[in-house]
Amino acid sequence: MNKKNIIRLAKKKAQRLAELRRDPRYALVMGRLVQEGLLDSRNIRLNKRKLWIEDLIWVGKEIEPRVLQLLPAIALKRPGILMARDFPRTLRVAMNDIKRGRDGAVYEGVALKKCRDWVPLVGRQGKIPMATRAFRLSSEDQKMLDQLSQILDLSRTDVLRKALHLLFESEMP
Questions:
Q1: How crowded is the C-beta side of 145, counted as CA atoms within 13 Å?
Q2: pTM for the model
Q3: 16 CB-side CA count, 13 A
Q4: DSSP structural state of residue 51
Q5: Which of 40, 66, 92, 157 is the most buried (most CB within 10 A)?
Q6: How far is residue 95's CA from residue 77's CA, in Å, rounded to a whole number?
Q7: Which of 54, 46, 118 is nearest to 90 (CA)?
């Protein structure tokens, strides 16, 4: 390709993006994300309206790819700002993969590792959602857990975490 063709194609793409940015969905999505402090963009009117998941996906695919990186994190930590006619199964799977620490998956063409980078920035800063695990404990184990919880003045979950860390440290070289 010669220089003139490259310039012509770049201008054509810039013109298409300018047309897409005039779409009201773009203004709503970007306005809310800028309002939340998640993205930075000039000449965007801030708003506090709830966002349709479908609009977020459209903006992410057509104009601003960072929105697709942000969507699973928003769905995990700030679901109250989202609305959906039909909650996408792929988004639900991405949310579960992020919770469980699975990096190999991809959501809408974006590696979940990139999506996970946004999680601490959404909602309460630095907090990462934890995966729920269920354990079956005998009544004796439950009594021990309750006693340790009272003695150490910790929640049952914190007692189990502390025991897990101590066991890991004692067993690992």
A1: 17
A2: 0.70
A3: 8
A4: E
A5: 66
A6: 10
A7: 54
Helix residue ranges, H only, 22-172: 24-35, 53-62, 66-77, 89-100, 112-118, 139-152, 156-171
Selection from 118, 120, 123 nearest residue 82 by Cα: 123
- Quick one: tokens of 117? 């980078």
Closest residue by Cα to residue 65 from 26, 113, 110: 110
Greatest alpha-carbon span in the chain:
79
Residue 138 CB: number of other CB atoms within 10 A? 8
Helix 89-100, helix 66-77: angle, nearest 10 = 70
Whether the CB-CB separation of 20 and 63 falls below 8 Å is answered with yes
Question: C-alpha angle with apex 13: 9 to 14, nearest 5 degrees?
Answer: 115
